[in-house]
């Protein structure tokens, strides 16, 4: 399980101060990026090797509205890993464990120049699976 703090800024919200629905995806994306960084994995280095991760599927359940100026946490874990894809389970929660949004995000590894499937580099798969334990 990887935890990443999120502060809700005014720009994340609609006119009523409630987080706009698509911004939950941004919060989850940031947490996945920071998880890779925590292992010393640079997406810039991967891009230089013509490797990228793309979202292939996203399922979100909006549980309760997050609001302007809340400090929340994204919990991330890998629930499934295949040769070229992995599934992240992610939740946005507050300090009491109340859930605001849950997501199941399928990410595929691709050769960027061809946008064709590419095996997840073994060092990344190993780090994420160890981090999931």
UniProtKB/TrEMBL annotation:
Q: Which InterPro entries match?
A: 4-hydroxybenzoyl-CoA_TE, HotDog_dom_sf, Tol-Pal_acyl-CoA_thioesterase, YbgC/YbaW
Q: Which species does the entry assign this protein to? A: Shewanella jiangmenensis
Q: Which family would the database say this protein is a member of?
A: Belongs to the 4-hydroxybenzoyl-CoA thioesterase family.
Q: Which UniProt keywords apply?
A: Hydrolase
In Swiss-Prot or TrEMBL terms, this protein is called: Tol-pal system-associated acyl-CoA thioesterase
Q: Which Pfam families match?
A: 4HBT_2 (PF13279)
The reply on keyword Ribonucleoprotein is no
């Amino acid at each position: 399980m990887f935890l990443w703090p999120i502060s809700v800024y005014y720009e994340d919200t609609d006119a009523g101060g409630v987080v706009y629905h698509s911004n939950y995806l941004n919060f989850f994306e940031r947490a996945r990026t920071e998880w890779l960084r925590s292992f010393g994995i640079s997406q810039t280095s991967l891009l230089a090797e013509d490797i990228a991760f793309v979202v292939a599927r996203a399922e979100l359940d909006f549980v309760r509205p997050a609001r302007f100026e809340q400090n929340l946490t994204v919990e991330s874990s890998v629930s499934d890993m295949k040769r070229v894809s992995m599934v992240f389970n992610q939740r946005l929660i507050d300090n009491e464990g109340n859930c605001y949004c849950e997501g199941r995000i399928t990410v595929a590894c691709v050769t960027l120049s061809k946008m064709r499937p590419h095996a997840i580099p073994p060092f990344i798969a190993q780090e994420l699976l160890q981090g999931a334990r």
